[in-house]
Amino acid sequence: MSPFTCANPKPAKKPRCWLLKLEAANRQLSEYAARVEDLTIAAERQRMARELHDTLSQGLAGLILQLEAVDAHLSHNHPEKAHAIISDAMLQARATLADARRAIDDLRQTTQDDFETSLRLEISRFTDATGIPCIFHADATPPLPDPVKETIIRAVAED
């Protein structure tokens, strides 16, 4: 029998039966929402990791080509051309570093946002499961190491 059906309830028990069905449907919907959120977070992390990888790969590949050109110009006694390429390479290295830092900062911010979202989700699950209302309030906190975040989320999740 499905958790959403009532086996021929007596008229006096119909409201209770519907309440139980509604609670079961609500729990299932909450579980689905949590799963969708987890998948969304994982997809975003993968996208940002690819972006960081691409930024570093392209930047380093460009630097390698420029250094090879410098080497060729130096071996053919063209130091002025080598110096010009070195100047360009330094600009490219700085730009690549700035792009990588931006991508890393985005990852850090997402992790902090995920932490708060995860806490809110666990508190919501607790309230749904127990009927005890909980209010989440957090002042601005410094970034926490991932193991600390995971421990806090596990502690909150234990009901």
Describe this structure in words.
The protein has helices spanning about 15-75, 80-130, 145-155. By secondary structure, it is mainly alpha-helical. Helix 1 packs antiparallel against helix 2. The longest helix is centred in the N-terminal third of the chain and has 62 residues, at about 15-75. The protein is elongated, with a radius of gyration of 28 Å. The two termini are about 30 Å apart. The model has no long low-confidence stretch (mean pLDDT about 80).
Radius of gyration: 28 Å
Oligomeric state, counting identical vs distinct chains? single chain
SS strand fraction = under 5%
| β-strand number | 0
Give the count of helical stretches: 3
Name the helicity range: over 70%
- SSE run: HHH
Supply the helix-strand structural class.
Answer: mainly alpha
Q: What are the segments in which pLDDT stays under 50 over at least 5 consecutive residues?
A: none
N- to C-terminal distance = 28 Å
Shape: elongated
Largest sheet: none
* Rounded mean pLDDT score: 82
